[in-house]
Amino acid sequence: MPGMPLMPGVIMCEAAAQLSSYYSHRYKLMEGLIGFGGLEEVRFRGVVRPGDRFVIVCKLLKLRRSIMTCQFQCFVNQNLVCEGILKGVSISAEQVAGAQAADQ
Q1: Which domains, from first to last, does the chain contain?
Q2: pTM of whole model > 0.85?
Q3: Is 12 in contact with 82 (CB distance < 8 Å)?
Q4: pLDDT tens for residues 26-40?
Q5: Contacts of 49 (CB under 8 A, 6+ apart)
Q6: How far apart are the first and last CA of the chain?
Q7: Rounded to whole angstroms, how far apart are CA atoms 66 and 63?
Q8: Distance of CA 64 to CAs 10, 18, 68, Å?
Q9: How would you classify residue 89: left for phi > 0, otherwise alpha for psi between -120 and 50, otherwise beta?
Q10: What pLDDT, in 10s, does the model give residues 49-66?
Q11: Run of H or E residues at 103
């Protein structure tokens, strides 16, 4: 928006997904890469402006062999600005290589 810089909601959701993926990789919860599986019950409750401290909290709800479900909340100045549930799916390195070869 001209004259009113805001952090887009899709970037808030992506940041939460990146945090969840990092958590999964750090604690070896799933094999391979974690791909985007979907979003549910996402609500935007405030705005994020340049210079705001954007804090993300994620909680693992469910873990199956190839699907991870996490609840996330995003805060600015202790105010909830975004929340929802995201799903990550396990993608093997072979699947990624095969998709790249098919595109060429």
Answers
A1: 9-103 (3.10.129.10)
A2: no
A3: yes
A4: 888 888 888 889 999
A5: 5, 6, 7
A6: 37
A7: 8
A8: 26, 19, 6
A9: beta
A10: 999 999 999 999 999 888
A11: helix 93-103
